[in-house]
Amino acid sequence: MEKQMVIRLIISxxxxxMVTEAAIDKTPKAVEKWFKNLPYxxxxxxxxxxxxxxxxxxxxxxAPVIAQANITAQSxxxxxMVRMFDNPLTIGPEPxxxxxxRAQGIxxxxxxxxxxxxxxxxxxxxxxxYNGSSLSVVGRVAESQEYRELQIIxxxxxxxxxxxxxxxxxxxxxxTTVIVEYNVIVRHY
Length: 189
Known about the structure:
Elements lengths: L1 H21 L5 H9 L7 E12 L9 E3 L14 E9 L8 E11 L6 E10 L8 E9 L5 E9 L6 E11 L3 E12 L1
Antiparallel strand pairs: 1-3, 1-9, 2-3, 3-4, 4-5, 5-6, 6-7, 7-8, 8-9
């Protein structure tokens, strides 16, 4: 009986520690304390693999055009077109695959000579151990490149002061949908 109580106590304390770690204090004083302890913190590396689903038209559109230049309609590269997006991130390429988060941000066509986009967005995690955390991503995506490299320039909660690389490769593309495979490696505290 006593042994069972000790085991229950250990399990209860373990759960309390996990819940406490998951609930990151974001108050200014807590962030300042975290920052002061940063020189003593150990840097971690985390890897992700998921799929980004962007839909350009129809009832389930996730990336509407929010602005375009006067010359966009005549441009073979869509120069001057800007889209805002809120795209699902899934563990597999199928649209009904388990969703792990959202990619939320903006991209615009920035080249007169090739299809190339400037991206500024966040990977926002909505499930699992990273729920509520995000990674900030910025970079250039040229459709002519098989692999495109975007920079991880920061993050929130678990990924405070994150830095890393997101490698993107088109998995599927049509006139209405693009599915992009992402491999992400990020260092954080």
